[in-house]
Amino acid sequence: MGGSPVAIVTGAGAGIGLAIARRLVRDGFRLGLCDLDTGLPDAFAAEIADGRAFAVVGDISDERVRDELIGGVRKRFGRLDALVNNAASGGQSAEIAEMDLATLRRTLDINVVAVVALTQAAVPLLEESGRGASSTSVPSSPTSPSPAAATTA
Under a CB-based contact definition with an 8 Å cutoff, are residues 66 and 118 in contact? Predict the structure, then answer.
């Protein structure tokens, strides 16, 4: 498929995710963005007046949010060249005896399960790009249980 490359960036509302999104735009990418914050990804997408980006506001661990993001990329751009799994939860810092298991499960859902699920959902569209597939996960901190790895699908 022709045209500018397309990337998805999760956790794109601030920090590393926003910096990655800004860099990708400078490099000519069109973007599908996702973040929990209701204003930040929309505001960034609005900065790109020529329709090169759109934002989905929601929790990436929610299957409906992942479907909206992948479906939006397919509908608007018809391709996907890169996936940046940047959304993450800092979790908790506690002794194991005091660790809240509900918070741990939530952290694992965001930092591990959602990364795998979004990557699985993106693989068909990544493969259709005809240039191979690239997915990168960015941990929120060195102690985060996020799988920090670059993979090729």
Answer: yes
Residue 5, pLDDT score: 95
Phi, psi (deg, nearest 5) at residue 135: -135, 130
Ranges under pLDDT 70 in the chain: 1-2, 40-42, 49, 92, 131-153
Are 137 and 115 in contact by the 8 Å Cβ rule? The answer is yes
Q: What is the pTM of this model?
A: 0.82
27/117 Cα distance (integer angstroms): 27
> Distance (Å, rounded) from C-alpha 128 to C-alpha 148?
25
CB 39 within 8 A of CB 55: no
- Answer positive or negative: Cα dihedral of 99, 100, 102, 104: negative
Residue pair 143/122 in contact by the 8 Å Cβ criterion = no
The separation between CA 87 and the C-alpha centre of its own chain, rounded to angstroms, equals 6
Strand 134-137 versus strand 150-152 pairing type: antiparallel
